[in-house]
Fold each of these.
Amino acid sequence: MLEKGIGLLLAVGDHPEGAGVSELARNTGLAVSTVHRLLGTLVSLGFVRLEEGSRRYTLGLGVFELAHRVSLARGLSEVALPVMRRLVKATGEPSLLAVADGPEIVYVERIEGWRRIQIRGSVGERGPIYCTSLGKALLAFMPEEEREDLLNQIEFERLAPNTITDRSRLREELELTRERGYAVADEEREEDVRAVGVPVLGPRGGPVASLCLAVPVFRVAREELEEYVPMLREAATEIGVQLPRGNVVEAARPKEG
């Protein structure tokens, strides 16, 4: 059904002046009843618009909004990747970029380090916002109302030796993160893994993404890892000032169908 819906949407796009149900059925080879049903769904989602007078269908604003999101998301990656590559070249450690999506983070970019032992984490993968350096960097610098709303959505679970599972304790950690300007996750999501993360701040001063370096505990001490913070901050600032105007957070988030 998804394939039919996309085919129908493309057919509508072939008719800038609009097309009726029968014409679209002929173009797609679908039954008139199927076309009518699919068009109803596409109209409700905003991807197709019905001209009431002529009963003809044209592309809706949703298509153009989606195209804009793709452009913005591509802008985030295009800006961030060269900066992340330089960061990884200097440190040898893997770097990840994430955005918030409710009480989770979504990894939107990752650059492998050149050292022998690496930390996992794939583009598109999700993680808890409360026990990762990326998530805590985002939470700490959000507007208070937005942060409190997300804190109330979190379902705490102990995932590693140092996972914070208390809301009050997490608030204290986020306050400390704001004061020092960076977040640390020391065996909080995964045993034997520690990471340091900083927010990527947008034009309005809020976090649009976060950037981190992750290391194995046995190889890099916490104090050693925190020595990378100035480089991380510089990288995050470089990304932030180059971002295109628009909602890059919404653009980068995977959309649920």
Amino acid sequence: MTFEFATATRIIFGAGTAQQLPALARQLGKKILVVTGNDPSRQYPLLAKIEAAGLEVTTFPIATEPTVDDVRRGASVALQCGMDAVIGLGGGSAVDAGKAIAAMARQPRDVLHYLEVIGDGYPLDEKSLPFIAVPTTAGTGAEVTRNAVLVSPDHGIKASLRHASMLPGIALIDPELALGCPADITAASGMDALTQCLEAYVSCRAQPMTDALCVDGIRRAVRSLEKVVKDGQDLKAREDLALAAMFSGMALANAGLGAVHAFAAPIGGSYKAAHGAVCAALLAPVWEVNWAAAQRNGHAEAKEKFESAARLLMSDEKATPMDACEYLGELTCRLQIPGLGSHGIVESAFEDIATKAARASSMKGNPVPLSHEELLTILWEAL
């Protein structure tokens, strides 16, 4: 057995740890670019403390999921202003954008030279600027991954910028920062974390360290997701989701994902749809089709993983993968997350989505090969 495991250089976790951010940033230099979500005012209390520590702060808000052009603009700002470091402060989009901007600020070529799938996919020429990830939602686990997912509207797809130097130097995870997160965002983000734990667990690239993280992440997400959607001030439940998200990020960075996220790449690139909501709509249909394919093709290891995951999800030693499929569908309904049709996706788009999903980097981790017809079946079931 051989495997590799990499994650953020330093992880600081716990309620109230965000108060350490000014001191941590000060260690990296004087000029700090802070990448936030669409409304930087939500982060003003923390930004004010960073400025009070004697640092020069420039904010760079991201309206939606980061695009290739967002990263170009952000890298230009970082370069022109002589930034010493970058902080990604916000949801997964802000963290991914900050990570990509920190990377591209030091590169001699355009982002498409390095971007996977739609670009040339070359490794970075230079190391990233120092980067601190501070998530305010619990979902993508971007605070501990080596890639940043970017939207290319011109290509109608999302693709990754990826390099080992993009692993954050510090991941600062304070569950208190998510206490004000709305219920719908909490639900969608939480389902993304659960999906990532499940996909990494059954991935054909899974290994013992990622398995251990996924097992604990699945348990935490299952016991706390619905609790925190009902009561957003439940700090214990917020801690569980923050850990599940972090574990899912560690796992996906080392074991890959699967068909759910392969579909999310073209859907997120062509439709204004929240990533977590898309993943939630796809999870049960992908699970069912993957399980059927594993049985039909005699993939013993995949079958064993699906059976084990079902027992984890249901907290029942007698639970089957089809029981788990039913549970995942019901969970999505209870969380009031709609199907793909609510995002404007129609049957006429299925061929293009399925073709692009088959080429997405996430499909490399799917536990079993899926035919084009099986991909279309998933889209029908998720509609």
Amino acid sequence: MNTTNANALAAMADALCATAEEAGRIILDIYEEGFEVELKPDDSPITRADRASHVFVSKRLGELYPDIPLLSEEGIHLPIAERSRWQRFFLLDPLDGTKEFVKRNGEFTVNIALVEGRSPVLGIVRIPVRGVTYWGGPHLGAFRRHDGGEAQPIATAAPGPGGPVLLASRSHPAPETEAFAARNGVTRRIDAGGAVKFCLLAEGTAHLYPRFNVTWEWDTAAGHALILGAGGSFTAPDGGDFPYNKEDLANGGFFAAWK
């Protein structure tokens, strides 16, 4: 398998951050203009912002990296017989947190990941409303940059005297999250949308993110890489590996933590 070295990953991160930031501007234009909400066959919402971001990012990635295939939430999902031949590929969620976009609470993101084999090695998360981009990977470290500012290294942090802060989905609550908090004596919690939760863990604002209900590979890959780059962990609930490019692109539960 061809692996990307650290210098190449850093150069790729620059290009992917710029791509995600431009996609964020496209999304914000639509956010301000107004939009209609449609429902996909699984009853999840989609807007023209999702589609416009997908079209832009997929075109840009094809221009920059024509030899690296793309798997996007809003694109064609090729069968595993073809995907299993991929040594590396991009995973894209062009607008993660469409429910938050529709609610206009600002907690939506653009997620781009590079996966090698079954593992993400680079992840970019852009939060358009906040004007901030996060990126990182297990061999790269993790960084945050506000528009107009310099890149800042970030890292997960151990809980303070008040105990750990738990992350939970704003729009996809699960009773198992409440049970986990009670079982482990966790009393502090942040509800957030989309991949914003991964960013809060990577920068040390929160410490635990147990997920029990369904996500998809494009929801998690960028945040997974970011958390590993920041020094955290990301596993299946039993502590095992959390692989990508599965036959079924739906994920089981996961557990992300500060170490």
Amino acid sequence: VSSQLVDLQIFAAPRIILKPLVPTFPCFTNIVVSLMEKPHIDFGMRVLGGDIMSIPGLYQFVQETIKKQVASLYLWPQSLEIPVLDASTAAIKKPVGILHVKVVRALKLLKMDLLGSSDPYVKLSLSGERLSAKKTTIKKKNLNPEWNENFKLIVKDPQSQLLNLNVYDWDKVGGHDRLGTQVVPLKLLTPHETKEFTLDLLKSTSISDPQNKKHRGKIVLELTYAPFREDSDGFSGPLDGYGRKESGIDRGSSNEIPSGAGLLLVTVQGAEDVEGERHNNPYALILFRGETKKSKMIRRTRDPLWNEDFQFMLEEPPVSEKIHIEVMSKRTGIGFRSKESLGHVDISLADVVHNGRINQKYHLIDSKNGMIHVELRWKTI
């Protein structure tokens, strides 16, 4: 049976952001598109010569379903991010601080369950980040939940980023209903000063949504933005071959170990001459304190370029610890022994803590000629 889509019309109010700006043409790396209101999509559908959209009730049902699905994905602050430049060719913003979030409580939430209650929890994230959202615990059968739970989020641009807050009603079966949403621009915060917010929850962040007038409860937060300490961010020395460096920092001038919480930033630039016995589809694994992070896989190459950042938020400097980085290869098809190691390295973090930054190439252990290029930074709050 053949079908035909006819007379397609789309009416929408898009919000388009070109970011981040870089010196490489076309001067931005991503196009970020959001919708400021639910779109209207009009079309006809012909099946066996007849327009099935003329069936009573079907047209309105399809319209509302499309609006709901599209709005859940792309209605601001949700967005569609379209990459224009490869991250390896552009200057990507680095972390500049930590946002401390204390989710205190919510008040007078909507009743979503049949017994006149809700099971609320909060999801929070920063705009422009692909990291998974943080979540509070679930408070069963409570319209005035008390959480007093703390979270840390990595900030890259305090002037433009938003803290996205969504309160949900947990359901054992099916999707979780959203009770309300809000956003907080980070530019409202003064560094190192804790600020309390009591926010009215909204149906959506669209200004024109008439359902925002309905009372959906409040959420109480405490926010503190802690920028990293200013430092020279100096390079630990020019590379001299592979794995050797001439330090540009007079380490004898100070034996003081930086104290306090901070961020360990690991940038895996790439690898050279990595070769597997059965396949060459390399990716990098970063293991630290029981946590494992993974880069993208690049197919059919012995010289992969990843240029990917990985972050670890720590309560104290890792002066006596090592980080394990391993290059793996994975078979793209179905077969036995689908994974194999192409080499690994264990890097002491003492120099990173003392110097603030190290950028080196390391020989891979258990690899004939393999090298890996890693940049490590320690930022103290």
